[in-house]
Amino acid sequence: MVAGDRRLSFAELGARALKAAGGLSAAGVGEDDSVALMLRNDFALFEANIAAGMVGAYAVPMNWHFTADEAGYILRDCAAKVLVVHADLLPQIADGIPSTTRVFVVPTPAEIAAAYHVADAVAALPPGSHAWSDFVAASAPLAVPPKISRGSMIYTSGTTGRPKGVRRKPPTQEQMDAVTQQIGSLWGLLPDPTAVALMNGPMYHSAPGAYGMAAARVQMAMVLQPRFDAEDMLRLIEAHRVTHMHIVPTMFVRLLRLPDDVKRKYDLSSLRNVTHGAAPCPPDVKRAMIQWWGKVINEYYGATETGVVVWNTSEQALLKPGTVGKPVSGAILRVVDEQGREVKQGEVGEIYMRAPFLSDFTYNNADDKRREVSLGELVTVGDVGYFDPDGYLFLCDRKRDMIISGGVNIYPAEIESQLIDMPGVVDCAVFGIPDEEFGEAICAVVQPDPAAGLGADDVRAFLRERVARYKLPKIVEFRDQLPREDSGKIFKRKLRQPYWEKAGRAI
User: Fold this and answer.
1) How far apart are the first and last CA of the chain?
2) Is the Cβ–Cβ distance between 490 and 429 less than 8 Å?
3) Which of 50, 178, 180, 478 has a CA 20 to 30 Å removed from the CA of 309?
4) What does the pLDDT look like over 312-335, one tens digit per residue?
5) How many Cα atoms within 13 Å fall on the side-chain side of residue 211?
């Protein structure tokens, strides 16, 4: 592994993870417990994730934009026995850490500190804190056979406002082998001494996290980009002869905006398998990237709950612009109406799906929410779409209110629950609107108290203290009244429709 000027061999990583696992076990961390990780892409993230798996605990990656309230909720919900956190991220969540959670701190590495403009004093180990490296060094290696890894418990969300942890049952050895084989064949993550993976997206997200850990399991050489920058990515690809990469469409957009002379400056001929997903990719963007990089770009569709269920090659993308592809071998997909009946080919309905091989899951402490998304053995994440006559899946919209901005899931209910408490706000609605760069942007429509004199900057300032910055609305509108359905629920469709019609897209 390469990170800035630092290097770590897989032999060293394995030895450190084994000692970390021994330390976690001695600290009372065992099967079905949780080890939370609030780390940027760094060696320590891999060490702690692997170590948690060895003792049968869930690794719980946390979004490092979270506030103390947001992080505290997850730490309490998963009952985290341990939190491993970068030094510069600790102050923003310190007030939310439960007293029952043991905290280990990782000094923020120089390349990450430089990328995020972190001062030396903030990047250093805080006085009185417990260093993760000291904990690992002082621990004896795990002396018993490792448990079957539970993998990561990723927190995703819905219209109820608070995130839910996707907690999988321990897989069988057969399931583990089958998933490894599938990921290896699709993502190209197979043992190969000539392959080099580039990690450019934060591994607290489900797909980049799965990608990075899968690459580590087969000991694929890996470069950790401290923060995505379009030209720096091209530089790293050339310098390290990168062959494999996971990316999101927003990165494509930023890459395509580079001047032509910059695009021609770097040798990208080493690329073999570039995988993208997490958000819709406009057909013209996909086409332009294939023309530039060649037919090395593949797309997947799925969710944290389901894994990969649909696959789309460059050839298929050019043949069927706008498709997300065809179901992978063994996957089950159904497109159904409001009564759960399968619709005819070409008709739009809600997509229910199940990936092959993955063990079943529930939502941590929320079995009722798991049942709400079920249709027999299939589950939905609220996407709406259709199959064409050739069996290609096309997505139209999401039935639920989730916003996907730059590949990041954002849930309006979380923002609304904070905004409704703002003095001077009578009511509010938050939803996604088209955005050229990020796919979707956040729009908040506020019904104010006429005497409050609120402005858009006031709304953002209020929210800035309560939610992560990426959840701040790009557009803030004010209305005397909000449209409501007969039930009294705000009719968001009427609020969103003008934006989507202007962009020529369905809602």
Assistant:
1) 43
2) yes
3) 50
4) 999 999 999 989 999 999 999 999
5) 33
